[in-house]
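INFO batch 0412 | record 1 of 1 | parsing
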Amino acid sequence: MDTQFDFKKRLREGRFGEVWLANDIGLNAECAVKCIPPDKVVNQHNFFHEAHILKTAQHTNIIKVLGSGKLNDGRIFVAMEFLKKGSLEDESMGAYIPLTRARQIMIDVLRGLEHAHSKDIIHRDIKPANILIGDSGEGKLSDFGLAVCGVKHLQPDAIKDYKYRMHLAPEVKSLNDYSYMSDIYACGVTLYRLVNGDSYIRTIPFERFKEEAEKGTFPDRNSYREFVPKSLKLIINKALSINSILRFKSAKEMRRALEQVKIHMNWNEQLFLDRIKWSASWGNKCYIVERIRIDPNRWQIITRKGSSKHSLRSIKKYCFKALSERESIKKTSKILQDFVNGKSV
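INFO prediction complete | emitting C-alpha cells
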C-alpha cells in the first residue's frame, strides 16, 4: 500500500498509464493521479515534463498540478486537482451543446491558452476530451502531455486516434510545423464539434486526412446546423483557415471575437420522419419552429410562440407554405438565426 495516496477508482486508462481518483493522505483531499508503471518509463524526465509545464502555466482555466514523484511500487506519478464533472466530451457525448454554453466554454479555454502561449507553451492536443469542467461549470485546459515550449518542427505523435488526428492543422500534417496557430486551428475544430455535434464530422480514412485538411474540406466549413449564426460561423471558419496567416493572430484575438457574439436563444433540434422541430424559450415565452414535408417536393414552415407549450400561436410572418426543399432550408435558417440574434424575440 502506498503511504501517500489512497487509490479509490480508476478513471481512465491510456497508452502509457492510468489516471486514478485518489485521496491524498497528507492533505486529506481528493485528487486525480496519473501513473505510469516502471516498464513503460523510457525517460523519467519526459514523464515529469507535463508536471513542469503545468507548474509553469498555472491559471484559472488550466488544470492545477499538485505534485509529482515516485510511488512505493516504482510507478511515477503526477497529481492534479480532481474535477467531478469530468470532461467536455463527457458532457456533450458527441452531441451539440447549447450555443451559449459552447461560446462560454471556448472563451474559458482561450483564456487558458492565451496564458500558456504567453509562457511560450504550445498545447498540441486541444479537443473536448482535454477540456475539463470546473465546479462552477468553467472550462479548464488539461492533458499537457504533448505540450512543447516554442515553435517546433516535430513529427505528429504516432497516435492512430481519429479524434486526435481531426484536430491537427494542415501545416502539421504536411510540414510537421507546430505553432500557436496550430493550437488556434484545434480550437476551431473543437468549437465546430460543439455547435454541430460529431454527426457533422464525416468519417474518412486516415490516409486522406492530409489531403482533406489541405483542401479545407474537413471539417466541412459550409455545413452547420441551421440555427448557428453567421457571426459564430465566421469565427470558426477563420480559426480553420488553411493558411495559418489568415487565422486569428492569437488566442486573445479569437477570445475577444467570441465575446462580441450575442446569443439570445438556444434551440433544441428534434428529427422526425416527415419534419424537423426546433424548440426554445426566451424570458417567459416558448418558441417552436417546424419544417414539415407536405409531399415529396413541397415543404411548409410553421412558427409559433406562447407563454407555454399549451398556448402557442402562429407567427404569421414566419409561416410559409408550398416551398421547395432548398427554399424551406433557407427560410428556416433565417428564422432560427433571427431568434438567436435577438431580432424577433
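INFO post-check: The mean pLDDT is 89.
INFO record closed
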